[in-house]
Amino acid sequence: MARSFRDCVEHFPLSIFALVMGIAGLGLGLRNWGDYGGPTWLGEPVLMLAWLVFFLLGMLFIFKAVRYPAETIIDLRHPVRLNYLAAISISIVLMSMILRVHEPRPALGIFALGASFHLIVTILVVNFWMHHARFAITQVNPAWFIPAMGNMLIPIPAVAFGFVEVGWFFFSIGMLFWAILMTIVFYRILFHEPLAARVLPTLYILIAPPAVGFVAYVRLTDGLDGFARILFFIALFLTILLFTRVRGQAQVPFSLANWSYTFPLAAMSIALMEMAEWTDHIAYLWAGLALLLFVAVLVLVFLFMTVRAGILGDFCRAEDP
Fold first, then answer.
1. Overall pTM surpassing 0.70 (yes/no)
2. Rounded to the nearest 5 degrees, what angle is found at the Cα of 103, between the Cα atoms of 99 and 106?
3. Which of 13, 80, 83, 164 has the most beta carbons within 10 angstroms of its beta carbon?
4. So what's the architecture of 2-311 in CATH?
């Protein structure tokens, strides 16, 4: 038993923080539904669960970093796993968004920590890109979008806390690297061998930057203009496109990569509800609620399968290189 626990800590995967993002995204979506006549309390138990999962995973990550620093450094030098470090900083920002309506002052401190950490992660990732020895194009996958998406998320709480210029700073960074990475990732998908089956769920990460970016942009500008519509309809197109492949993706064996479905789709559901508010088109609201219900089902199923995989020790072995 001691060896099993040691192995689980030593090989603790950064990608597991996608659980926090998925659960928090669902909870924030349910809280957002309350603004449109839904039950105002429905999202709170989910958001409390997100806090609990974040705390437990955060403790495990800190323990791994202290007890097994060599393994942690290996993750930070890996071209794919490094990007999941941003899932931790994003999770911190999400925790501030959860807490803000209840305890604004502590939430502001958590937001400052998360935003600062994410800026450090972004600089670390970009430096890694610029000064690497050599990347193979096959090492590129949609997980590379995670740091860019985090920069687009930060403006949402930044505006809520009154730091609009900070929001524009992070939004600009996110837009820059989203544009660059869209070109690189689609070049890899179109002209090289297909993505491995186990990472196919990460394609849904493509939805998150424009969906989150749309919500951030309308909060920053307090209006719906042409550029906001472009972001929204790019996200909507990518959602429809990826749903046309859902049958094939459903046949992929479960792994932590499956959590890549949850946060982007939750973000899209919030974007749809936001669009309904600005346009008064009820169809957007119903589409957002239907998508949110789908995310709720996914989170329940993935939670069960993740717990089962954890009990079986599936996360207690070294990740593929």
1. yes
2. 85
3. 83
4. Alpha/alpha barrel (1.50)
